Amino acid sequence: MKKLLLGDFAVARGAWEAGVQVASAYPGTPSTEITEELSRMDDVYSEWSPNEKVALEVGVGASLRGVRTIVSMKHVGLNVACDPLFTASYTGVNGGLVIAVADDPSVFSSQNEQDTRLTAVSAQVPVIEPSDSQEAKDFTKLAFELSEKYDTPVILRLTTRVAHSQSLVELCEREVPAAKPYERNIAKYVMMPANARVKHTVVEERTAKLSADSDEFEINRIEEGSKELGIICSGGVYQYVKEALPQASVLKLGMVWPLPYKLIERFAKSVKRCIVAEELAPHLETQIRAHGIAVEGKNIFPRCGEFTANLIRKCVLGEQKQLNVASVPARPPVLCAGCPHRGVFYVLSKLKLNVLGDIGCYTLGAVPPLGSMDAVVCMGASIGMAIGFDKADPEAHKHSVAVIGDSTFIHSGITGLIDAVYNKAKVTVVILDNRTTGMTGHQNHPATGKTIKNEPTYELDLAEVCRAVGVRDVVTVDPGDLKATEQAVKDALSREEVSVVIAKRPCALLTKKLYRGFKVNDNCKKCKACLKLGCPAIVNGKDGISIDVSLCTECGLCQGVCKFNAIEGRD
Amino acid sequence: MDILIVGVGGQGTLLASRVLGKYALDKGFDVKLSEVHGMAQRGGSVMTYVRIGEKIASPIIDEGQADLILAFEKLEALRYAHYLKEGGEVLYSTQEIMPMPVVTGAAEYPQGIEALLHGTGVDALSLALQAGNAKAANSVMLGALCKKMGLDRQAFEEALLASIPQKTVEMNKKAFELGFAAV
């Protein structure tokens, strides 16, 4: 039976068919749906881990104990998980261990555009890369086989267009291999210097063997076409190549590290012009050239952004379409109507504070008119940066705050807060507690009191965590109450110690209610104070201020800033 | 058949693409859909691709390639109009949603968009309100699309109703009907 499946769902299906027993992850676009889908399968244990490092460590343990395991994350999540990754490469596996990592060319929803293949080369971990949903499923199953055969974790690399595209997939049944017996093996699994030295040699030999064997792998294949032009490609780019250059010969690499050099050499010799088409870093090109095989690549293709069929036609054939592009105002993403973060950013903007930001929906606090953000780097960085501000400038703590989401705080903000207390920083931290992992589509986390399967569990109390690490000034406010929020922030700034303000209100999208929306009455003086909220439901039209009922969630923030009682509900 | 679905994040472009995908699959075609999640969904400009045919390679639609653009907002229709191939058409909602640069006064909402678009406008917001709620605007547009493309109405409507919450079925049926009658 064929089914239309999202790439991420196909990975989950492949893992399920391969008999996966344990799945762990921290949500990250575009990888989140892999684990969401696995959480719907009763015969697989799944979890949202607090961060990617823990997720991979759970995976390493489950693999060690003998069952097939998948760990999923986005490209920047792999940075967090690099510590276990680099050494799990040395220990190898017992049950198959697959790490699904989704890159984000063109940066649709990330803070950078890094290339997982380069990390994998450093970690000496093989990488396979599907080009559509069918391959996403098939390659996931193959990844488990390779993992067990070559005693290594295997990275399944996706990009946004593979992870978040849907195409047809042939479904199969689940086959669970017998769990591998667990035996203590200190030389293999305890990485102390004497063992690690030995294992490093094993890893180098493994990579060389995989490279040699991969000349025969079915997933590395030549599709013969014109002898004039040959393209070496993989993943989503393969589809663009087939679309743009249907006549060309193609070497489609299913495994993009290590590489099948004999196959590549044979292919390169068989065509007049040989080009490597790859998004982001010149990974394949560099490795192929280092083997003395002449190819073109980034001399004609860009390093930044995702490819399209048009781009390939332009770069390879010099074809360019004349387009009549309309000049229109940009429409950047904004905080949703009813977003609880808006109240906090309104206050921070009003008080003209320096704001050290973090990763989540609330990064949009940087967008005008709120425009309240000084820096955003990575998950959990806001608190560390605020400490740096404080240590570099003795006055900074009076006019700067760190803002961090509830899930992000648990991911990697807690350690920053410990540092702040331990090293006597005077920072103010605002935890934007919207009771969910918002940006990635509402996943549970330790402070929601629900597991990935929505089962009740211990609910981490954020205020108690803050007190436990030594913060004496911990206040909880409703960000819908602008006066209370402003007062709480001012109080925190005035103190010569670490303060935490927990701005607690559920994400507006968690309520599935249908709203009738507010309306503007005749009291409106067109003072435009409400426009400073940056609420997408408030319209500044030709006929004055009005409210878009298709967006309004009746949160009441606009009523809070209106001095003329000009905004009211509909009877 | 290459259909580009554009709108403002949160308007339901994903739902529309999935309904089209399900319909095409049921009719025995190869289908590829590509969608945008995460940051780009939060009230920003969004595009979703639907490609239907005998055998589809790329899941995305390039500039100058689309047979039809289904636009849930007028400015977004204009923003992506250059994705149409020669002779392609736009089916757009006449709803205007002000982007933040317009709200803050940094830019103006363009006037006379209709004159620049080759296609058909539908007052989806009014029709949705008539059906019961502004949220039904995407069902209005899908009704209009069904008529415009000459799709099998019963099969298409079933694909839609299978993709929405049970309690909104009546409202969406009505919205679909109003959209179907509007073009």
Shape of chain A: globular
Shape of chain B: globular
Uncertain segments of chain B: none
Oligomeric state of this protein: heterodimer
Count of helix runs of chain A: 20
Integer average pLDDT of chain A: 97
Based on secondary structure, the structural category of chain B is alpha/beta
The Cα radius of gyration of chain A reads 26 Å
Helix content of chain A: 25-40%
Distance N to C terminus of chain A:
52 Å
- Give a short account of the largest sheet of chain A: 7 strands, mixed
Q: Mind telling me the C-alpha Rg of chain B? A: 15 Å
Could you give the distance between the termini of chain B?
Answer: 20 Å
Tell me about the largest β-sheet of chain B.
6 strands, mixed
**Helix and strand element order of chain B:** EHEEEHEHHEHHHH
Helix content of chain B: 25-40%
Number of helices of chain B: 8
Chain pair sharing the greatest interface: A-B, 59 and 61 residues
| % residues in beta strands of chain A | 15-25%
Assign the structural class of chain A, choosing from mainly alpha, mainly beta, alpha/beta, alpha+beta, or little secondary structure: alpha/beta
Mean pLDDT of chain B: 93
Characterization of this structure:
The complex is a heterodimer of chains A (571) and B (183). Chain A is of the alpha/beta class. Chain A is 36% helix and 18% strand. Chain A is built from 20 helices and 22 strands. In chain A, the strands form six sheets. In chain A, strands 3-2-4-5-7-6-12 form a seven-stranded mixed β-sheet, with helices on both faces. In chain A, strands 14-15-16-18-17 form a five-stranded parallel β-sheet, with helices on both faces. In chain A, a hairpin with a 2-residue loop joins strand 20 (538-541) and strand 21 (544-547). The two termini of chain A are 52 Å apart. The model of chain A has no long low-confidence stretch (mean pLDDT 97). By secondary structure, chain B is an alpha/beta fold. Helices cover 39% and strands 22% of the residues of chain B. Chain B has eight helices and six strands; from the N terminus they run βαβββαβααβαααα. Chain B has a six-stranded mixed β-sheet with strand order 2-3-1-4-5-6. In chain B, strand 4 (66-71), helix 2 (74-79) and strand 5 form a beta-alpha-beta unit. Chain B starts with a strand and ends with a helix. The relative contact order of chain B is 0.16. Classes of the chains: A alpha/beta (571), B alpha/beta (183).
